[in-house]
C-alpha cells in the first residue's frame, strides 16, 4: 500500500478545519470519502478533494472497499462504538480524543486491534510534535535535575455556546474529557511514569457537566497540578520544575492556532536554551505517523495503551472527587 485512502465519519467542525486539511496535506494519504447527510457540509471537504465521494451514512464508508482507514470525529459518547464497528469492518481507525469515557472500555478495542492486526489509535496529536520529544529528552536526561513539580493549565470559555456537545452530559462533555487528556497525558509522556494517586480534586459543574477541574496528582518523586476549564479566559501553559532547572512550554497544545511552538530550558548553571518550531503542523505529522504504522514502517507513537493510561488517570480524578 502506497497511498492510504481515508474516510471521515461526519462533517464535524474540527474535521473540516484541521483533520481533513491534514489528511490532504500529508504524504501518502488521500481523503477519499465523507459521510454526511447534509450536502452543504460536504462542500468545504470537496474543495480540498474534487473527487471526494460523499455518502449519507457512516456504514456506507465502513463498507466501501476503496477506503483503507477512517477518522472518527463524532461526539465522545460514540467513540468506542464506532471504533469497534470500524475495526470489525476491516478498517484502520483513528478516533478523536478521548477514545473512551472510561479506561475499562478500551480493553475491547485493544483486543479487537490485536485480533484483526489493524491499526487503531486515539488522535492525540501533541505526541507527534517535536517540541514534546525535546521536552521529554530534557527531563529524562536530567537537564533540570530531579523533576519536582509539573504545572499544566489549559482553559477556554464556551459558555456562550450552550448547544456545544462539550456542554452536554449525554455526549460525553466536560473539560477533563476534552482537554484534560492534554494536561494529564503530556505529563505521563514526558516523565514516562504512571500516577500513584490523586491527592486532591476540585470539580465544578453546570447542569451536571464538569466545566472546571483542578487536580493535584502524586507521581514518584514529583507532583502534577492540572487545571482545565471551559469557563475561563483561554490560556495554556506547562512548566516542569526540577532541582536544577525549569522547562517552560509556552504553546503546549495548539501551536499554529495560538502561536508558534516554543520551549525554554532555564538551568541553574549554563546558558538558557530556547527552541522554536515555526510552521510545524502536528495534525499532518499525526496522519503521516498513522500511515507509517499501517505500512509497517514504524510503530505508532500513541498506542491505545497510552490512551488508556490517561483515561485511567481521569477516572482516578472522578473517584477522588466522590
What does this structure look like?
The longest helix has 18 residues. The chain is built from 9 helices and 14 strands. The mean pLDDT is about 95. It folds into 2 domains: about 130 residues, 3-Layer(aba) Sandwich (Rossmann fold); about 150 residues, 2-Layer Sandwich (Dihydrodipicolinate Reductase, domain 2), CATH 3.30.360.10. The relative contact order is 0.16. Strand 13 and strand 14 form a beta hairpin. The strands form 2 sheets. The chain has an 8-stranded mixed sheet with strand order 8-9-10-7-11-12-13-14. It has about 325 residues and is of the alpha/beta class. Helix 7 crosses helix 9.
Helix content: 25-40%
Shape: globular
Secondary structure tally, helices? 9
- The number of domains is 2
Query: Biggest sheet: strands, sense, closure?
Result: 8 strands, mixed
And the CATH topology of the largest domain? Dihydrodipicolinate Reductase, domain 2
Runs with pLDDT <50, length 5+? Answer: none
CATH A-level architecture of the largest domain: 2-Layer Sandwich
Strand order of the largest sheet: 8-9-10-7-11-12-13-14
The CATH superfamily of the largest domain is Dihydrodipicolinate Reductase, domain 2
Specify the structural class: alpha/beta
Radius of gyration: 20 Å
The pLDDT mean sits at 97
Report the count of strand segments. Answer: 14
For the record, give the distance between the C-alpha atoms at the N and C termini, rounded to a whole number: 49 Å
Strand content: 25-35%
Please provide the ordered H/E string of secondary-structure elements: EHEHEHEHEHEHEHEEEEEEEHH
CATH class of the largest domain: Alpha Beta
